[in-house]
Amino acid sequence: MQPNPNDPNKKDIKKKYKNIMNYQLGVVLHLNFGVHILLLTIINILAMGILIGLSSRFYPLVKLESLQTFIIVALLFTFIEVFIKGIMVRYLYRFIRITFGIMFYLSNLLTFWLVDLSVPQISFLYEGTNIFTFTLLFMMIRLLFTTYVRKSKWIQGGKIHGL
């Protein structure tokens, strides 16, 4: 008996399942990696800008010296985050599911700390808890933007959920 060419084989099913899981975990915003990086960079710049603007009005959490520093911090954070999140999903997927995504918060916290150490023109002000607060608020604001990007058909090319 010959296999039917219209039946999906196990490799295709496994690949589609992996894409769906990565998409649902928020690892990818678009299946094209270049578009994903561009969208993630724009979203991170917007979320950081909103958070820094709002927090500087009421309770300053972070101090940046210039607009160039802001762009460098956003780009550095994005690229480190993509690297760390890719490794985490690849090797710690089960642990991420067990902890309900708390590992993503810890990885973002670590990433902001690394960016703070590597760029001298940024500092989290007053207390050590500011980096925790900034990371939590940043992730909440970014969740709004990423949800919109993942649900909008015009960004995903008319496909449902980017798949």
Overview of the molecule:
This protein is mainly α and 163 residues long. Helix content is 69%, strand content 4%. A two-stranded antiparallel sheet has the order 1-2. Helix 2 crosses helix 3 (67-91), helix 2 (33-58) packs across helix 6 (130-151) and helix 3 runs antiparallel to helix 5 (102-118). The radius of gyration is 18 Å and the shape is elongated. The mean pLDDT is 81.
Key terms for this structure?
163 residues; mainly alpha; two-stranded antiparallel sheet; 2 strands; 69% helix
Write a short abstract of this structure.
It contains six helices and two strands, in the order ααβαααβα. The protein has 163 residues and is mainly α.
Strand content: under 5%
The DSSP helix count reads 6
Side by side, the strands of the main sheet go 1-2
User: How many domains make up the 3D coordinates?
Assistant: 1
Gyration radius over CA = 18 Å
Percentage of helical residues? 55-70%
N-to-C SSE string, H for helix and E for strand: HHEHHHEH
Contiguous low-pLDDT stretches (5 residues minimum) are none
Report the count of strand segments: 2
User: What is the 3D shape?
Assistant: elongated
Distance between the termini: 32 Å
Main sheet overview? 2 strands, antiparallel
Question: Pairing-aware structural class of the strands and helices?
Answer: mainly alpha
Mean pLDDT figure: 81
